[in-house]
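Running log. JK asked me to keep both predictions on one page so they can be read side by side. First protein, sequence followed by its tokens:
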Amino acid sequence: MQRRRSVPHTFEENIAAEKAKLEAQIAQLKPDPQMDALNKKIRQLETPSHTSEWLTSPGLQAPT
């Protein structure tokens, strides 16, 4: 019997899910060092997301 595999998520979906999870945690916190650390993680997640958008943009095409 084979195990069923879930549908793989894209890189962008994984980043968005992690960002949403962290934002939900921040909403429950008062301003403190832990909140600052979560904000830093969110900013770090935005960097690869923007880079991925840039790399997949139609303006970035190899010359033909």
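And the second, directly underneath as requested:
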Amino acid sequence: MPSSRGIGTKSLFSQREDSRSENAPEHYLIAHSDGGARGNPGPAGYGVVIQDQSGHKVAHLSEYLGHQTNNFAEYQGLIAALEYAVQQGPKALKLISDSELLVRQIKGIYKVKNATLKDLHSRAKELIAQLEWFSIGHALREHNREADRLANEAMDKGMGRS
């Protein structure tokens, strides 16, 4: 069936919450981030794969976080990617996460109700404000495998597994 939208009509689905995410600059980083907790809460960790705009890997970040929740770990991965972009440059970052909650909270679609997550959300927003450009998007887990692997390796290492 042909579309009934006329030329020049904007789709409701293409609107963005943050105008800074509209046009990517010439140089930016892409971070695939994942966090997890076994038992939720339980042994937790995050993994982040950072690439330049051409897709060349420039960094792998991961950390065991002790006994935490999955959402805590997701936020720690986001913060690690943001800190990397602020410190290493370029100060432009596109973050991909498989956490719909994290993405929607950062975009302001969902409220942050948990006290611990409120603190992490505030830290993330402070770091985002230091960037010249930022975009965040959701990807299904199967499109975030390398970050997932890094998060699991961090959890294994922290739990004394090889």
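Observation for JK regarding the second prediction: Residues 29 and 52 are 5 Å apart (CA to CA).
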